[in-house]
Design goal:
The chain is of the alpha+beta class. It is built from 16 helices and 14 strands. Helix 5 crosses helix 6. The longest helix has 23 residues. The radius of gyration is 40 Å and the shape is globular. The N terminus is likely disordered.
Length: 559
């Protein structure tokens, strides 16, 4: 009798040993497995309930996870990764058969982004061919998978996509958030240990002032609107297309992959999580390189704290010389959303759009329950950001920037000016496109004519008045053409109409017929003759003897 394998294998029907095969009388009840059947997970496999085969469907899944304890998202042999955890849960839930486990190519597995070690996500997207149904469990596949996932993981839902869908290449934009404790912006905190110890040694000489001076004389640090604007202005220096080779690792400045486009980079006002005050920075770009966002945040923090100048930040964006950029901790970074605008535009009529908006409540709940509490608790216990700022290599960054500036020789300024011009031109185009629809008729009515530049409406009124006056008074006859013509007649055009030939003799007239039209081929010979042209192109006909050619090449004929 045909039996089914373990549910994790997809319930594949198998035939018994030939010795125990059913008899012919039982053939009408149970049929043996025929040979040459497709793989149970193949897209062409049918969902026949009698055979127990379950068809795979191409789906895209939005999910969230806390990256602590994992060495990145993408599978890496010998490392503990998020993809390994996801595949293990999907196989246990019956979404992938055991035969296909361990080989992502068999199920067409793709991911939208590869987060670094310790980086979390609330809008990660993967795509694969997955079995949605289960032979014994009628619950939704997302519910079954979430039961197998560890704490700190959650799948929000799946969406059916096209067969050729790729989660990485079809993702237009990616949105990341980096959450920073506000103490990182306080210049009196997070100072190097040597400075703090020197200040404490100096304070011992006057204990009275040291006891109450800081509490009474210094105002508490507040992350106000002015500081937020300062941070946002520094972050917006990253917007646009730049060569970010100084803000990543192991990428040459001449590598095309170093050119990246950032759409926006914003900073929010403070918010409090479990007694720790944070600010949220949000960056939207097409794609990001390894450690890029963490280096962008690290350079920004140094500029705001006064460790180096804003000009140094801009210099690192416009030079091909290498300079050092500090990398902020991974704790505050998480992937917020993967955006599929082009895919939704193209396949929106035939397939359900891919959007994280329908899981908005789940996303906010996961942030509140897992992401933000994890960051605040870790910051309290380990002081991750404060320790990083204390160890900030200020002197090394300054020295590397100055050395790169000497090698550059001022080339970066020309690059910056070119970018500024292009940005201004693009901004003007956007402003022109965003004009109100009501202004279009006015522009059409004041469109300049052939005799006016259309600078304002006054020339049009005067011209109309002049036309009315000329209509009422008799018009003067136009001047004769010879009054305005040049003394010498213009030369006849030589391209379309050739000039008339000079008078010819009978001999010259017969020879000229072998030349053909200017720039073309000569007419075919009408009679024989032996004529050789020194510059003729094609053939020429003639009574015999030698005839000059009419163009480039050589003409000949015998007779």
């Amino acid at each position: 009798v045909a039996t089914a394998d373990d549910p994790a294998d997809g319930g594949v029907a198998t035939a018994d040993d030939p010795a125990t095969a059913p008899s012919a009388t039982d053939a009408g009840v149970v049929a043996a497995k025929p040979t040459g059947l497709p793989d149970p997970d193949d897209d062409d496999a049918t969902g026949d309930a009698a055979s127990g085969r379950i068809k795979k469907r191409k789906v895209s899944i939005f999910l969230a996870y806390v990256g602590k304890g994992y060495q990145g998202f993408q599978r890496n042999p010998g490392a503990v990764t998020v993809e390994d955890e996801l595949e293990r849960a999907i196989v246990a839930a019956g979404g992938i058969s055991a035969d296909n486990a361990g080989d992502f190519s068999k199920v067409g597995w793709t991911r939208a982004a590869r987060t670094d070690k310790g980086v979390s996500a609330v809008g990660q997207s993967i795509a694969l061919r997955m079995m949605l149904d289960h032979p014994t469990d009628n619950r939704d596949v997302i519910t079954r998978v979430n039961e197998k996932l560890p704490i700190g993981f959650e799948m929000f839902g799946y969406t059916r996509v096209t067969g050729g869908f790729n989660a990485k290449t079809m993702c237009d934009r990616r949105r990341y958030e980096y959450v920073i404790p506000t103490c990182a912006f306080d210049p009196k905190q997070c100072r190097p240990r040597a400075e703090v110890e020197a200040e404490a040694e100096f304070a011992r000489f006057d204990e009275n002032d040291a006891a109450g001076g800081d509490a009474d004389g210094a105002a508490p640090f507040v992350f106000d609107e002015a500081l937020r604007d300062r941070v946002q202005n520094v972050l917006r220096n990253y917007c646009g297309t730049h060569n970010f080779h100084n803000y990543t690792v192991r990428v040459s400045p001449d590598d095309p992959a170093a050119m990246r486009y950032i759409l926006s980079f914003d900073c929010s006002m403070p918010f409090v999580v479990n007694g720790v005050e944070f600010v949220r920075t949000t960056v939207v770009g097409q794609s990001f390189m390894l450690h890029q966002i963490r280096k962008l945040i690290g350079m920004m923090l140094g500029v705001v704290r006064g460790a180096w100048r804003e000009e140094d930040q801009i210099f690192a964006l416009n030079t091909k010389e290498s300079c050092q950029a500090p990398m902020a901790p991974e704790l505050g970074l998480f992937l917020c959303e993967c955006i599929y605008h082009a895919y939704n535009t193209r396949f929106g009529e035939t397939h359900e759009p891919l959007s994280l908006d329908k899981y908005k409540d789940k996303v906010e709940a996961f942030k509140t329950t897992h992401i933000y509490p994890h960051m605040s608790q870790t910051e309290k216990e380990e002081s991750t950001m404060q320790n990083w700022i204390r160890m900030l290599p200020v002197k090394q960054v300054r020295a590397s920037v100055e050395a790169a500036r000497r090698k550059d020789g001022g080339k970066w300024e020309e690059v910056a000016r070119t970018k500024a011009k292009a940005s201004k031109k693009a901004s003007n185009k956007r402003k022109a496109a965003e004009k109100a629809p009501g202004e279009a008729p006015d522009e059409a009515s004041t469109k300049p004519g052939p005799e006016t530049d259309g600078a304002n409406e006054t020339p049009d009124v005067e011209e109309n008045a002049d036309l009315t006056t000329r209509a009422e008074t008799p018009a003067k006859p136009p001047p004769p053409p010879k009054a305005v013509a040049s003394p010498d007649p213009p030369p006849s055009p030589t391209v379309d109409v050739p000039p008339p030939p000079p008078p010819e003799t009978a001999r010259e007239n017969s020879l000229s017929r072998s030349k053909g039209p200017p720039g073309g081929y000569a007419r075919p010979p009408v009679s024989g003759g032996n004529a050789f042209g020194g510059g003729g192109r094609g053939r020429g006909d003639g009574p015999g003897g030698r005839a000059p050619g009419g163009g480039r090449g050589r003409g000949r004929g015998r007779g």
